[in-house]
Amino acid sequence: MRSLILGQHIGNWMCRSSIERNGKVAVQFRKGWQPVSDEKRRMLLTEEKAELLAKHRVCYICLEPLATYEPNEIEFDHIYSYADGYPQDLSNFAPVHCSDDPRRRNCHKDKGRKSPLEYREELRIRTSLQAITGLKDLCPKAVPSTYEFSPDNSQITFNGVVLPLYNQRINGRDNYYFFSRS
Ligand SMILES: [Zn+2]
Known about the structure:
By secondary structure, the protein is α+β, with helices and mostly antiparallel strands. It has helices at about 45-55, 105-110, 115-130, 135-140, and strands at about 10, 15-20, 25-30, 75-80, 95, 145-150, 155-160, 160-165, 165, 175.
């Protein structure tokens, strides 16, 4: 005889009970109930946390050190979501900043529902964009130039050299250009 555990999913079926008014327990089988990940989020042991901290040393998201953070300011996050079917073994966990102190990092909160990997990439792009203050950051080898623009005389003085200036009107707008050997 096969026994069933209440709440057990059998394929697309689920077994569950309800107590009727007369006190009897009714066992129901309903089709179409999707397993909502029966697995509980794995609770890490203190030794496991210590092992992960020794292995990573930095926050898995921002890659900044964790050394100055207290145990209650560090969260252990799934690198790949277990809701997506990834295993919950220790190698799928990594420490991240999670401080309630507004002056300290809380990468866990900031990432929202994204995966640590996804949020780390987003953060990397955002930080590199913030570092761009002007053209010099995009073209580090660019040499500064000085010019004096005289459209009335059809000339430009570019780095001390006077050059002819050409105008091509496109859609009623002036488009000036010139040729320089330097
Ligand atoms: Zn962090």
